[in-house]
């Protein structure tokens, strides 16, 4: 009985020693909610390498990797586009996950220097990113342009004319 408990405890300790704390508690992929004001904008998510990793429209949710490689967090550029509004770009940066520091207590050197940095679990991403597209650039005028000769105007229309200098 005592041997069984010791063996179980030993296996659990070995498991903890071989895993990083952030890898156990956190993840290396995060769902990020993407919104804009006004809603209905198209967006592209571009990684550090300049590769478009996702396209969608707001509001939406995209799952993104938090790490780019060994000890490198990922940074994304989100480009928002909507007809009639200026394009906007927003940076989305990863930051060190607080659970990474728990490796000092639980994961040890292996978790701190190997597992979490390799898996990207040492980084986290914000839950949400948003862009304000501002004011519309221009409103399209409805209607048609009609060109007429001054000779075709009635007296009331001629009275509204303004001389150019």
From TrEMBL:
Keyword Transmembrane annotated? yes
- Output the superkingdom of the source species: Bacteria
PROSITE patterns, per this entry? PROKAR_LIPOPROTEIN
UniProt keywords (A-Z) are: Membrane, Signal, Transmembrane, Transmembrane helix
Q: Where are the transmembrane segments?
A: 98-115
Where is the secretion signal located?
Answer: 1-22
Recorded protein name is PEGA domain-containing protein
Identify the species of origin. Pseudomonas putida
């Amino acid at each position: 009985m005592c041997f069984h408990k010791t063996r179980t405890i030993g296996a659990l300790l070995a498991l903890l020693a071989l895993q990083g704390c952030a890898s156990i508690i956190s993840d290396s992929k995060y769902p990020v909610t993407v919104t804009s004001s006004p809603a209905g904008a198209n967006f592209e998510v571009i990684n550090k390498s300049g590769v478009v990793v996702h396209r969608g429209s707001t509001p939406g949710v995209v799952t993104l990797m938090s790490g780019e490689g060994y000890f490198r967090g990922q940074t994304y550029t989100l480009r928002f586009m909507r007809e009639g509004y200026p394009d906007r770009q927003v940076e989305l940066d990863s930051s060190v996950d607080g659970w990474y520091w728990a490796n000092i207590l639980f994961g040890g050197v292996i978790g701190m220097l190997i597992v979490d940095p390799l898996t990207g679990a040492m980084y986290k991403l914000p839950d949400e990113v948003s862009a304000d597209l501002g004011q519309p650039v221009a409103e399209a005028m409805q209607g048609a342009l009609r060109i007429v000769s001054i000779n075709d105007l009635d007296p009331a229309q001629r009275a509204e004319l303004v001389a150019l200098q």
